[in-house]
């Protein structure tokens, strides 16, 4: 409609259609977009997307090179995870992506599957239970992370017989171990008893600092 009106309505004399500054702004967006669309066929959408984002950030935004690289590569990784892994929608790839074997990245798929298993509601609940049990065992003097895992190891015998139970058992035992290490620090600081060897500083470094504390003067 605007094109038709521009052809029908007579234009005022000595009136420019577009100024040089306005034309530069339009070309600054139009030319890189056209180059990006043409480069997708040759180098793929991921590499061309990194260059496209980097060009705008560096030339127009004047951002630092490390920010340009971080945002460009991060955007490409997010797009790959969303489309290729999550939605199973393959995007155009070029020789760079094929050289890096992005089309068949079984490692990333296995990593995402591992995160999905570890962050399931059952395993998250076992993490909390394991940390609480580990802290309780670690608070007891003379018991450390290894002893806590050995004591509570029979709890996992029945878990290993169910599908996926072996993974849940390993998650539970690891949380018990690290919870026991943290619980040992509580005993060491409050009761001036040395915790597990090599894990926490001697209690003599914590107790005097607490005894030297003075109430604030009013």
Summed up, the helix count is 9
Q: Could you say how many structural domains there are in total?
A: 2
- The helix/strand order is HHHHHHHHH
Gross morphology: elongated
Rg, please? 31 Å
Main sheet specs: none
- Average pLDDT: 75
Describe the protein.
- α6 packs parallel to α8 (165-191) and α7 (145-152) packs across α8.
- This protein is elongated.
- By secondary structure, the protein is mainly alpha-helical.
- The mean pLDDT is 75.
- 67% of the residues lie in helices and 0% in strands.
- It folds into two domains: 17-105, no CATH class; 120-207, no CATH class.
Summarize the structure in short:
The protein folds into 2 domains: 89 residues, no CATH class; 88 residues, no CATH class. It is 67% helix and 0% strand. It has 9 helices and no strands.
SSE blueprint:
Elements (H helix, E strand, L loop, with lengths): L1 H7 L11 H41 L4 H22 L8 H5 L6 H13 L2 H19 L5 H8 L12 H27 L15 H5 L7
Please name the defining characteristics of this protein.
2 domains; 218 residues; 9 helices
